[in-house]
Predict the structure.
Amino acid sequence: EVRLVESGGGLVQPGGSLRLSCAASGFTFSTYLMHWVRQAPGKGLVWVSRIKSDGSSTNYADSVKGRFTISRDIAKNTLYLQMSSLRADDTAVYYCAREGHFSGEGFDIWGQGTMVTVSS
Amino acid sequence: SYDLTQPPSVSVSPGQTASISCSGDKLEDRYVCWYQQKPGQSPVVVIYQDSKRPSGIPERFSGSNSGNTATLTISGTQAMDEADYYCQAWDSSTVVFGGGTKLTVL
């Protein structure tokens, strides 16, 4: 079964750090572009970051640039999001998602999400 | 940055056709995908590459993209289709989502 399972969410104080993980299974993780997408409570989907299949290139939304770092461990079939200098408006459910191989295929597999709450 | 605009809400009667629009500058030059999200669940892609349906998505879901507007059409809408719908496109190496449309079936 093709699956993505996020973990690492929780309550963190403003200015703090957190690392999210996304464990992939059921497919060849090393061949797929991977993304993080977040959703604040009651709000819409917002793209956060992406990483190429071999990890050679990364991109970020302006709102997280310089604070978040996306990475992947091919040997562990795991995607990461290191978050620092967290703010209240980073509070959201964070999803990892797989992008299909071909142009325009979109995000064909999503994890169940992990909740991050930034509050004192 | 590139923006996608969706109506906040659309209402439809059961069995009727629902249309949800997604507007962006020269959107026809980009591929558009559509996602369905039900409360408490992760999004699911229902349309990719403007008009293609993934396996397992009912035929009543269709998509188009022309000019500045992409449209998700649900024919013979069922109660189970009530959900939030998001359009998505690419902006160079980044990704953009529309603000989402709440589809109410009443």
